[in-house]
Design brief:
27% of the residues lie in helices and 28% in strands. It is an alpha/beta fold and 189 residues long. The chain is globular and about 60 Å long. The termini are far apart.
């Protein structure tokens, strides 16, 4: 298993590196067979008005799935402990689901390719706010599988190709509880 530790506004000391390594190794020890890489991002917010300034974020790449957790507190070591516990629970949940049934791979790395330029003689202009592009394969999945992926990546939304319709859908977590599903709708002229 490859462990990558990065810091933002903080120096990663040998003691801190050892503590993170120990906690993450313990959290993923039972899941070594499915875990390829673990990325740990530690950060400290410089704004004194933020109460939980010390954050630990862990991203695990496990058999084609991405499992992510983030915790913030006023103590970096406490954040590391909290995120290690959270990631262990998510890995256990992921493995239990995986053993009950074997779903298709949900993500495959795709190389960046240049998009073809239009041949109308004009140079294409990209909008300035585009900062980063991500490319990934999107195999069809059921809404229930997309919901499982949403819970694993710990984001507010998840984009997927609906197995029933073949269209791109977005499942998201609602502010007041529950989940929502965004589906395309043909415009009526």
């Amino acid at each position: 298993m490859k462990l990558v530790i990065q810091g933002k506004n903080i120096d990663i000391t040998a003691a801190l590196r050892e503590y993170v390594s120990q906690k993450i190794d313990k959290a993923v020890s039972h899941y070594q067979a499915i875990t390829q890489e673990v990325d740990v991002h530690l950060s400290v917010a410089r704004n004194p008005r933020i109460s939980d300034r010390q954050a630990a974020e862990v991203t695990i790449y496990a058999n084609g799935a991405v499992i992510r957790a983030e915790e913030k507190s006023d103590n970096l070591y406490a954040s590391i402990d909290l995120v290690a516990d959270k990631i262990a629970r998510k890995l256990r949940k992921f493995k239990e689901r995986k053993t009950s049934r074997t779903p298709e791979k949900t993500s495959i790395a795709v190389e960046n390719i240049a998009l073809p330029l239009p041949t109308n003689g004009k140079a294409p202009a990209l909008p300035p706010p585009v900062i980063r592009n991500k490319f990934f394969s999107m195999p069809p999945m059921a809404v229930e599988e997309a919901l499982e992926q949403l819970e694993l990546v710990d984001h507010d939304f998840f984009v997927f190709r609906n197995k029933a319709t073949g269209e791109i859908n977005v499942i998201y977590e609602r502010n007041h509880g529950g989940y929502g599903l965004i589906q395309p709708h043909e415009a009526r002229g």
